[in-house]
Specification:
Protein name: J domain-containing protein
Main location: membrane
Oligomer: single chain
Radius of gyration: 30 Å
Keywords: Chaperone, Coiled coil, Membrane, Transmembrane, Transmembrane helix
InterPro entries: AtJ13, DnaJ-like_C11_C, DnaJ_domain, DnaJ_domain_CS, DNAJC11-like_beta-barrel, J_dom_sf
Helix content: 25-40%
Shape: elongated
Pfam families: DnaJ-like_C11_C (PF11875), DNAJC11_beta-barrel (PF22774)
Amino acid sequence: MTQPEDGGGSNRELYALLHMKDVATENFQRICEAYEILTDEYKRQIYDIYGMEGLASGLELGPKLNKVEEIKEELERLKRKREEEKKAAHFQPSGVILAQLSVPSFLAGHGIMRAMSMNSEIQSQISKNNAIAIGGTLAVKGSDGDAAANAVFRHQLSSVSSIEIMASAGLRGLIGVQTSRQLSRHANATMGLAVSLRDGSINLSNSWSRQLSTTSNANIELILGSDSSVAVGWRKKDQKMAAAGEIRIGTSAIGAFGRYTRRFSSKSHGRITGKIGSNALELEIGGGRKISDFSTVKMLYTIGIQGIYWKLEFHRGAQKLVVPIFLSRHVNLGFAAGAFLIPTSLYFTLKSLVFKPYYRRREKQQALENMEQTRAQVQEAKAAAAKAQQLLQNVANRKRNKQLEINGLVIIEAVYGNPKVIKSIDNPEEKNDELASQMLDVTLPLNFLVSDSGQLKLHEGVKKSGIMGFCDPCPGETKKLYVKYTYGGNRYEVEVDDLQELILPQEEHRI
């Protein structure tokens, strides 16, 4: 049989293979979900009453519920919570309180408060395509004060374009219109027109942005009016760091700025910012720490031609309190060094002696409480996983021996569970007997999943607790999978998140 000149036959074969791959992935996910439900009496009870809706609502994440009435009550609670979250998404308040303090003014007997301002805004999604934002600003400096009010109406013209009509009265009274459009998959453009209510001046603005990669984008901005300027900027952000930079040339000033933020962990980060130009020369160093699910504290140190500052920030949801503390107008080397080193040393001392031990004790106590609540559920799940592993044992051992003969993929050690417990595997001193129960040995089921060609693949988006021979050893906690394996006479190791894809072997895993 000859192949068509246009390659139609090969294309059809390719499409068929791709379709088969998609179907296989989908079936694999369904089998994992079905196995997880069938082997868990608690989840099976929820499924029998409410089907997949009950499981998708998050009931499996809570403590074990023995009675049908308890399950119904929990589902209703989760439904109410979801409705409240949906309403909150259509009504979003935000605000900033700024309190400027001055140490030199206080020492001179003129009071410590230099200036104060308060900004508040409420955004509301009034319909599918329309949104409105209303806000205001109050500012006081010495015996002078001012106020402003603003409103913005946004209409979604289509899936790729929108228009905003804005008006402001007070400090900078103006009316304006702005339209945005997605030019392509990776490019956007915005054009605006604003008229000042004070002097009637007109300002035109144009900006273009383009996504350079999955983690970076660049933009160009052009402003024509009483203070014309052109700016070129760049931004990059990934899980560990964020960076941004801009060069701006205008009729009144020329300058550039750069910012780099580094995440040390899921709760803390450091930041350095620099500004240079015709009217600015400034360096800012600092960092922040997340103290709860919705709250963050930051402290920044600034030195420049305007003097030396400390800046304290407290973020709670969309609300922010900012307290700049002016220390000195004169940049003295000794004073500048002391202003940086004293609070930095104090922070690290308190962190190591007070905060870190406190949070460790609190996290440990919460983990132990959660373990106590889910102990029976985990014991049942582990018993079911042990039975499943017994069924897999003969085939897994045969596959392992075959891979050993051909120097192929052999799983030496694999554990699944609490990341903190997994980290303590190589440090017996840090190992805790209570927390050790939050980990499950899954070496055998992974050897079972190794293909005859010496490969292993766990699909993205599928909870690993649903794999045959696995279970959830720590309900409600973050989970990871740690694997040590050999291939071709070399040793490898890798750690992945619960929903992350895993493909073995890979050269980047080599020790």
